[in-house]
Amino acid sequence: MNSRPVAALFVRADSIYKTMPGVDCYDIERDALTWPGGCPVVAHPPCRGWGKLFYFAKPAPGELDLGPWAAQQVRTYGGVLEHPKDSKLWEAAGLPRPGQVDAWGGWTLPISQHWWGHRAEKLTWLYIVGCTPADMPLIPLHLGRATHVIAQSRARRKDGVRLRKGMEGWRPEVTRAEREATPPPLAEWLVEVARRCIVPVRQAA
Questions:
Q1: Which DSSP state fits 181?
Q2: What's the pLDDT at 205?
Q3: What is the dihedral of CA 32, 34, 38, 39, to 10 degrees?
Q4: Are 80 and 43 in contact (CB under 8 A)?
Q5: What is the C-alpha separation between 13 and 189, in angstroms, rounded?
Q6: Of 62 and 74, more confident
Q7: Which domain holds residue 73?
Q8: Does residue 82 fall inside a structural domain?
């Protein structure tokens, strides 16, 4: 069993990562910027300033800087960065879009968190450095429609009409905690990905 230490950066105070052996967690109180480096990471930098509704967000001073900083930790030490699909962080930090590879050997894997048990589809991009597609842990395939949605504002019919309660196809929203939290099976899978990540010495220097 792979037991390499992993750092989980920008996690919730009640994060599932805190229950995992060998995972060093940094939440808002501990401050990920104090992490000294030295092992692969699973990074969940704040996303509200980078998502599709960024114009409604009010990031705290310095919050937007955390995304590019997290990407640099992944490039330096290996691991995985998680953000919503089409996050604007990809352009800001020069991250490769799906199907591309960057100068660090990093690549982007599109996933649905529903595959790991999330009640909503929650489309997500993972930026990975140090582990090739062939070396990844198995990805579960979950067929069927999610029972919930992340936000009603995104739920629309094929003709563009916004779905409302009582209309065919309408589904309830998940809770705020569910929007923010990582499903335990996905968290375990991300830690396993990070443990498989190895960057060349020239990158880690």
A1: S
A2: 43
A3: -20
A4: yes
A5: 20
A6: 74
A7: 6-204
A8: yes
